[in-house]
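agent> call fold_tool(seq_1)
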Amino acid sequence: MENFSSEKIDKIKNSPFPREKRGESGVGKRRVYQMVYELTLTSVQLKTGIFNPPAKLINNKELTCAAGMAYRKAGLPMPAAEVGENIDVFRKRCLEECGEIDENLHYVLAGYTAPPDEVVTEDALITLKLGYEA
């Protein structure tokens, strides 16, 4: 997982935004991607922190972010996840391994309904790490 995250981050750092290719000044892709990931983290923090009951998670990136937060709060190491792993299998494993966790995190993780073919993506691995480090 660490190798993937480093590769992905390096790829983002070295990849120019299309406007820059045309000679126009603009925001680099790294900043755009980083902002999207941070918005996912903020969304999960808000959904589990201020709403009662907590708001539902809407995609696999929010789910993995919440899972990272759950593992951290349970005092466990960051979970291993693979691109292509079924997201529902990952979610159930998270609930089993984390045991007694924050009630709101448990609520959103247990309440997530994934389509049968939804899998862990590269972006989901990045938000998993962000959630764990938050």
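agent> call fold_tool(seq_2)
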Amino acid sequence: MGVVLAVAGAMVGAILIGPAPDVFAWVMGAPLALMVLVGAGYLSRQRIMLTAGEIVLRGLLFKRREARARVVEAVRATIVAHRGSPGDTLFLLDAHRNVILRLNAGAYRREDIDRLVKALGVPCREPGRPVTGKELAREFPGLDLVSWVERHPVLLAFIICGVLFAVLMAGIVIGVAA
């Protein structure tokens, strides 16, 4: 996110300094300001609360409660996005090995997540190394830990590019025919 902010900030600065109309600074600056505000709000509101009877995950726009007794297992993994930075994630599973909660553990210190798992008193398994979504799915077969998008990011990018190309070509054909 820091790279995105730096690039967007540099673009806004270049627009203001250069000969481009000032309206372009607003076009770039408004989304940048919105990203900063949403990011700050997300980080300030994100909490994990553990009580005697439940675990509560609170984010910017949601609050999710689950009975503590439902959690019987935890899986902790550092998931590496395609050409992205790794993110520490904690999955809490029920007796049927379904994901009850998925916690973005990267927003917390490692010791805090270790304390959470210890307080829950459930076994915690880890792959032992940073993994991609596809590797995590292979490492823990039968568990639906990561989405199709996380397992196939390159294929998704090709699909999006293909759809955009088809829309562009259709627009060109329609434009030429008219």
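agent> summarizing second result for user.
The chain has two domains: 2-43, 70-154. Residues 153-177 form the longest helix (25 residues).
agent> awaiting next instruction.
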